[in-house]
Amino acid sequence: MSVWHISGGRRLSGSLAVQGAKNAVLPIMAASVLAPGQIELLNVPELRDVDTTVRILRTLGCGVEREGDAVNIDSRGLARSEIPHSLMRELRSSVIFLGALLARCGRARLSMPGGCELGPRPIDLHLMALRALGARIDERGGDLVCTTPEGLHGADIALPTPSVGATENAMLCACAAEGETVITNAAREPEITELQSFLRKLGAEVSGAGSATVTVRGGPLSARRVGHRIMPDRIVSATYLAACAAAGGDVELRGVCPEHFSTVLRSLSECGCDIMSKGARVRLRSDGNLTAPMPVITGPYPGFPTDAQPLMLAACLRAKGTSVFVENVFQNRFRFTEELLRLGARIHTEGRVAVVTGVQALHGAPAVATDLRGGAALIIAALSAEGRTELLDSGHVARGYERFDENLRALGADISRT
Ligand code: EPZ
């Protein structure tokens, strides 16, 4: 259990290099078991979710060495295709190993990933896609026992909703499925395009990522040495900019892809922030007195990212007027707002809609982080509140943010973590 100690009311200023993307590196680490090879990943962030994935790879028999921001994976020694429940519990997205293990070993056993604070996290679309490719999946006492009795074969997979994880799982499994697989209504997130570029380095024939139709021509993948640099994290980028918008200041981010979070930049600019982006740099200036933006309506990429909704909501707590948020991706992604009320925020939630009435000032108060992005939102609110906030956090924020307190302190915030 960590406790974040924040004294708000200080402006943020400075320049920051943004970490590698959590939601790109996790599927790429799973993909590293597709073929026996030596993989060097660079710009890998130091996150709890990455540490858990390293433990999963080692449990499967891979060699994994971490040196600074590099992670070297030797998947030639892969000897098991089962992931223990204890590791599955820690990381929902470990279900992504299903497709990779079926492709490499023809079988896999892992437990149903837990739900989480965002509401139920079903994996029915993952299972539908893998079954279409020839996998036989039995649910036995909370475990998924997967085999490929007749091998894997190409298939047409139509996703009812553009699920990021189901798209990734289907792509990985299809790499070993004889023939052509066409995934329609595929997720279009930048992390999918990043996964495609990694799979191509492994020798896989994948195309269409970033569009709604991804095509994979399956076949044997030969062993090879592969290097890949992880793309910057668009949600972490949005987090630091939302913090500067809320607290006021002048912050520049380096090594980012502004086009990956252009919807967030648009909303921040509607709030009155002064935003300049040039190449891989984005600079935001704010006097901390914002105005309510146009309604923030989340949706699959290229819509407003659901992961940035809590961050934008926190930035709008003192914005003049009424800010409206519609959460279309997850059923229960407003739980963190109950904690924001303790800091004096005025928020009314009704199902998928949250209405924020701007208040003159927020005041520091004890609060609890309910999930990863909700925890980041509470820190943003505390930075723009008067007085001290103590935020209890059972490790949520560290799952997605590398050196968050250190980076915010370097930008002038009065924040520490015990
Ligand atoms: C990925 O989760 C991200 N996680 C999430 O980021 C992100 O919020 C989400 O995509 C949406 O962009 C990783 O990449 C590790 P989905 P994922 O499958 O793949 C429903 C963060 O904060 N659904 O696109 O689990 C599901 O319930 C995390 O970094 C099914 O119904 O998201 C949800 O309502 C949070 N059946 C919607 O689809 C399925 O089989 C979108 O989920 C799968 C999903």
Automatic annotation (TrEMBL):
<keyword id="KW-0131">Cell cycle</keyword>
<feature type="modified residue" description="2-(S-cysteinyl)pyruvic acid O-phosphothioketal">
    <location>
        <position position="116"/>
    </location>
</feature>
<keyword id="KW-0670">Pyruvate</keyword>
<dbReference type="GO" id="GO:0009252">
    <property type="term" value="P:peptidoglycan biosynthetic process"/>
</dbReference>
<dbReference type="Pfam" id="PF00275">
    <property type="entry name" value="EPSP_synthase"/>
</dbReference>
<keyword id="KW-0132">Cell division</keyword>
<comment type="pathway">
    <text>Cell wall biogenesis; peptidoglycan biosynthesis.</text>
</comment>
<dbReference type="InterPro" id="IPR001986">
    <property type="entry name" value="Enolpyruvate_Tfrase_dom"/>
</dbReference>
<feature type="binding site">
    <location>
        <position position="329"/>
    </location>
    <ligand>
        <name>UDP-N-acetyl-alpha-D-glucosamine</name>
    </ligand>
</feature>
<dbReference type="GO" id="GO:0008360">
    <property type="term" value="P:regulation of cell shape"/>
</dbReference>
<keyword id="KW-0808">Transferase</keyword>
<feature type="binding site">
    <location>
        <position position="307"/>
    </location>
    <ligand>
        <name>UDP-N-acetyl-alpha-D-glucosamine</name>
    </ligand>
</feature>
<keyword id="KW-0963">Cytoplasm</keyword>
<feature type="domain" description="Enolpyruvate transferase">
    <location>
        <begin position="7"/>
        <end position="408"/>
    </location>
</feature>
<dbReference type="GO" id="GO:0051301">
    <property type="term" value="P:cell division"/>
</dbReference>
<dbReference type="InterPro" id="IPR050068">
    <property type="entry name" value="MurA_subfamily"/>
</dbReference>
<keyword id="KW-0133">Cell shape</keyword>
<dbReference type="InterPro" id="IPR036968">
    <property type="entry name" value="Enolpyruvate_Tfrase_sf"/>
</dbReference>
<comment type="similarity">
    <text>Belongs to the EPSP synthase family. MurA subfamily.</text>
</comment>
<feature type="binding site">
    <location>
        <begin position="121"/>
        <end position="125"/>
    </location>
    <ligand>
        <name>UDP-N-acetyl-alpha-D-glucosamine</name>
    </ligand>
</feature>
<protein>
    <recommendedName>
        <fullName>UDP-N-acetylglucosamine 1-carboxyvinyltransferase</fullName>
        <ecNumber>2.5.1.7</ecNumber>
    </recommendedName>
</protein>
<feature type="active site" description="Proton donor">
    <location>
        <position position="116"/>
    </location>
</feature>
<dbReference type="GO" id="GO:0071555">
    <property type="term" value="P:cell wall organization"/>
</dbReference>
<feature type="binding site">
    <location>
        <begin position="22"/>
        <end position="23"/>
    </location>
    <ligand>
        <name>phosphoenolpyruvate</name>
    </ligand>
</feature>
<comment type="function">
    <text>Cell wall formation. Adds enolpyruvyl to UDP-N-acetylglucosamine.</text>
</comment>
<dbReference type="InterPro" id="IPR005750">
    <property type="entry name" value="UDP_GlcNAc_COvinyl_MurA"/>
</dbReference>
<dbReference type="GO" id="GO:0019277">
    <property type="term" value="P:UDP-N-acetylgalactosamine biosynthetic process"/>
</dbReference>
<keyword id="KW-0573">Peptidoglycan synthesis</keyword>
<keyword id="KW-0961">Cell wall biogenesis/degradation</keyword>
<dbReference type="GO" id="GO:0008760">
    <property type="term" value="F:UDP-N-acetylglucosamine 1-carboxyvinyltransferase activity"/>
</dbReference>
<feature type="binding site">
    <location>
        <position position="92"/>
    </location>
    <ligand>
        <name>UDP-N-acetyl-alpha-D-glucosamine</name>
    </ligand>
</feature>
<dbReference type="InterPro" id="IPR013792">
    <property type="entry name" value="RNA3'P_cycl/enolpyr_Trfase_a/b"/>
</dbReference>
<dbReference type="GO" id="GO:0005737">
    <property type="term" value="C:cytoplasm"/>
</dbReference>
